[in-house]
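[Discussion] Sanity-checking designs against the backbone

I'm trying to build intuition for which residues belong where. Below is a structure token string of 219 positions. I'd appreciate it if someone posts a full sequence so I can compare it with mine line by line.
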């Protein structure tokens, strides 16, 4: 049985106190169950008094109240603050932090949009990248075929690899209008819905190519 809530605990305490007072005065107290709404004078009087109290009695509550929406907002803000602290202090998600400075930024960016498998691989650095596959011993060489020297990771593919230069130019650099795109630009791209759409196209092209050439099963 769960805890008794509302005014019931107060009524129980008052009733017990009155019973104890009667017993201390030498009076005998007996409790009986009676059928409700059966015309019993005492029970009818109690019902009438209860209705009058519920409808007419106006008094201050014994506790301070606040809207449920206010409590929810406080809990939400506390949760977001804790999430942000964990995100910043964690050694994980190093690639994701390139794109999003906070979990809330990531949530706003994709709460109304579809986050695809290929886009997720780009934002996390997982999947068909040679660096990732090599780290888990799924591929012997972490380098990119473009020069057999550069590590094929998110940074290289997005910003440097000449094999994706045309897509980079058409999907991002011309759209942004700032010339050669940098790592610092990526967080700003994620804050703009139109730029995110172009980035999604660009990232999908890259990951599709990587999955084919690295024969990854993560597609």
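Best answer:
Here's mine. Compare freely.
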């Amino acid at each position: 049985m769960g805890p008794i809530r509302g005014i019931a605990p107060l009524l129980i305490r008052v009733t017990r106190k009155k019973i104890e007072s009667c017993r201390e005065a030498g009076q005998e107290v007996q409790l009986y169950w009676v059928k409700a709404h059966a015309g019993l004078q005492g029970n009818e009087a109690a019902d009438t008094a209860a209705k009058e109290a519920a409808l007419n009695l106006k008094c201050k509550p014994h506790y301070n109240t606040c809207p449920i929406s206010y409590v929810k907002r406080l809990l939400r803000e506390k949760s977001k603050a804790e999430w942000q602290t964990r995100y910043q202090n964690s050694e994980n998600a190093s690639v994701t932090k390139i794109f999003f400075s906070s979990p809330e930024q990531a949530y706003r960016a994709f709460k109304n949009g579809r986050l695809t498998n290929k886009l997720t691989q780009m934002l996390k650095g997982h999947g068909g990248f040679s660096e990732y596959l090599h780290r888990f011993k799924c591929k012997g060489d972490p380098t990119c075929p473009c020069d057999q020297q550069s590590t094929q990771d998110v940074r290289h593919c997005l910003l440097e690899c000449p094999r994706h230069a045309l897509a980079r130019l058409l999907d991002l650099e011309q759209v942004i209008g700032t010339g050669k795109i940098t790592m610092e630009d990526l967080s700003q791209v994620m804050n703009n819905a139109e730029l995110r759409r172009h980035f999604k196209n660009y990232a999908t092209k890259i990951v599709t190519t990587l999955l084919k050439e690295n024969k990854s099963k993560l597609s």
